[in-house]
Design goal:
alpha+beta; four-stranded antiparallel sheet; three-stranded antiparallel sheet; globular
C-alpha cells in the first residue's frame, strides 16, 4: 500500500478540525520559507492531542492542538513552533507504556523532548501511541537526527 503524501494527510486532518485554531496555526506555519514542503513528517491524532510535525530545508515546523476537554474549563488551544535545526541542543527519547501521561498528561508510549537553549526543559514534545505510531515517530526522529548531523 503506497504511503500517502504529507499534503494529503495534513489536509485530511485539517478538514476534521476546520473550525479550530489548529487551522489558523497551519496557515501561519506554511506562510514563510519552504512552508508545507516536507522531506519527512510525523502526524499524531488522538482525543487529547493532535500533532502535525514536519522537517524541511528551513528546519522543523511543529503544530500542536489540544482539543477542549469537556471535563476541564480550559478552551481548546493550538500552538505553532518553528525550530531551525541549529537551535536544537539535544533530543531526549523516553519509551515505556504510557510514559507521556506521566510526563505531560497525554496518552503515549514514546515521547521525544526537543531541547532548545531558550527553553531548557524542552519546547517541543512528540508523542506516539501504539506500535505503528511508534515506528513512524522513530523514522521521523532518525530523519531529524540525520539532518542535524548534516548541519553541524
Amino acid at each position: 500500500m503506497p504511503r500517502l503524501s504529507f499534503a494529503r494527510i495534513a489536509q485530511d486532518l485539517l478538514s476534521r478540525h476546520q473550525a479550530t485554531s489548529l487551522y489558523d496555526r497551519w496557515k501561519e506555519a506554511i506562510s514563510f520559507g519552504e512552508g508545507a514542503k516536507a522531506t519527512h513528517f510525523y502526524v499524531h491524532e488522538a482525543t487529547d492531542v493532535v500533532n502535525i510535525i514536519w522537517l524541511n530545508g528551513d528546519g522543523i515546523r511543529d503544530i500542536t492542538f489540544l482539543p477542549k476537554n469537556e471535563e476541564e474549563p480550559e478552551p481548546a488551544q493550538a500552538m505553532f513552533n518553528f525550530v531551525p535545526l541549529t537551535s536544537i541542543v539535544t533530543l531526549e527519547v523516553r519509551e515505556a507504556p504510557n510514559i507521556a501521561q506521566l510526563l505531560i498528561g497525554v496518552d503515549g508510549d514514546i515521547i521525544v523532548q526537543v531541547i532548545v537553549p531558550s527553553s531548557p526543559i524542552g519546547q517541543l514534545y512528540w508523542v506516539a501511541l501504539g506500535q505503528q505510531e511508534t515506528a513512524e515517530l522513530k523514522r521521523f526522529l532518525t530523519a531529524v537526527l540525520s539532518a542535524m548531523v548534516a548541519k553541524h
